Amino acid sequence: MSARRLDASTLRRWAHTAVSDLISQTDEINALNVFPVADADTGTNMLFTMRSAWAQADSGAPGDDVTAVAAALADGALRGARGNSGVILSQILRAMADVTATATEDRVIADIDGPLLAAALRHAVTLVVTSMGEAVPGTITSVLQDAADAAGREADEQDDVAPVVAAAAQAAVAALDRTPTQLDVLADAGVVDAGGRGLLVLLDALTTTLTGHAQPRPRYRPEPVDTPAGEAGHPATAVSKGSTPQFEVMYLLSGAEQAGVEVLRARLDELGESVAIAASAEAGRYSVHVHVDDAGAAVEAALAVGTPSRIQITSLTGGADRHPAGGWARERAVLAVVDGDGAEELFTSEGAQILRPEPGLPVSAHHLLHALVNTGAEQVMVLPNGYVAAEELLAGWAVASDWGITMVPVYSGSMVQGLAALAVHDPDHQLVDDSYTMARAAAGARCGSVRVAAEEALTWAGACRPGDGLGIAGDEVVLVGDSVADVGAGLIDLLLAAGGELVTVLTGAGVEPDVADALAEHVRREHPGTDIVSFRTGHGGDVLLIGVE
């Protein structure tokens, strides 16, 4: 049997599995979080960070280039890092990218073997300690150090990466169990280190990816601790400079010199605690994290040494309630599948997030899942708008459910129906009420389209020639005419035959503005009392999309 290695595809699958496993373990990890601040968000932060890494690697790296995938994971993690644990995780992924890139300079590599992974873990220890400023015993740094040492010993014996990962994971378990003996705040709270537990999840996910078998672990729970009479036993204050800081501040820093970064670290140490400054593989770019009372001063300190961006300021007083269940940034979002720059602008202005189909390609379940994750919401109403096949919706729903996302497809066969549904969306309503109201609005919008005939054909409405306008309702051609404007007017008449108060016209790529003007004039002349609105969406395919409500 040949030695197992990490190629580009396996590395992506590991990132996917790691996100899935972190979702299921987030609450457990959060419950262990007492150091450096008992804010119950270590699991959430690692999940957000790993999710960002997966999204970057999934969308931005060449298919079979393991170096590019490792670099994309590192870049995504740095950009999306949350909290101390997220910064540390970004450095672990950066270590893998650095070691892989260095190996590629010496020879062409298609995968990561055992010795290369062991080297990445050793390099990760150095990067993590550098980013944190010091190594605190009893934290994820201790767990990572023991895992790296065990991986190095195993890698001396073989190239197969699976035994190397197994040895690292086993050493991580032993190191994790020792953390309460190394850090008093953990012993006082009766917990192991939350970050170390998260690292074990990542190592176990790698084992699962390589071998197909999940490693069972006991559930780590806070254990009751006897507190001597007269002692309150507040572990968070035992490691704090005073009371718990009010804010967690994070930002990306660009254009900074190493000397300036050290000045910034010293200033942030004066202002607060839990300072972490992680370097990117790109020179002069860093991820900065600190807990402070004066958030403005923490940001202002960056201005003296570089340019801060993507600034995040989060209250530390909300505990586990700062994020919805499962670590999502918000509770509900609407994801609309649209085509055309104008359509994206239109749906975005109405509060939806957007998924654009690739030119000439259908929307797959994989693309749908990627967009669902990027909404950052626990509940996502999906408006397919005729661009997603039913089987892909079903497959996307199944995987999203495993990832802790409640996906609710709201059937819309056209963007005009999607707009009708979006108009009645109310995130303050119960999910079932919101989805029912949106589905009813979409179904109540009668719709049709106009396309240009590409060849001679015989339709239900008669023969057509290339360049003729074809009016379509349902799946049938119901009108044939010499011009797009004339067929559009006739289709509006048919759709209004059963009544209606509002006509919506979406014009596609290449449609002249006078077509919309002609249709507006037709409605005013032939259907007084009926309103008409038109938008230039620039979509492909059918040149006009028409809806009646």
What can you see in these coordinates?
The protein has 549 residues and is of the alpha+beta class. Helices cover 50% and strands 18% of the residues. It contains 19 helices and 18 strands. The strands form five sheets. A six-stranded mixed β-sheet has the order 15-14-11-18-16-17, sandwiched between helices. The longest helix is centred in the N-terminal third of the chain and has 25 residues. It is elongated and about 85 Å long. The N and C termini lie far apart (65 Å). The relative contact order is 0.08. About 5% of the residues have low confidence.
Major sheet attributes:
6 strands, mixed
**DSSP strand tally:** 18
- Please state the CA-atom Rg, rounded to the nearest Å: 28 Å
Mean pLDDT: 85
Structural class: alpha+beta
- End-to-end distance: 65 Å
Q: Runs with pLDDT <50, length 5+?
A: 227-242, 319-327
Q: Report the β-strand fraction as a percent range.
A: 15-25%
Shape: elongated
Estimate percent helicity: 40-55%
Strand order of the largest sheet: 15-14-11-18-16-17
Number of helices: 19
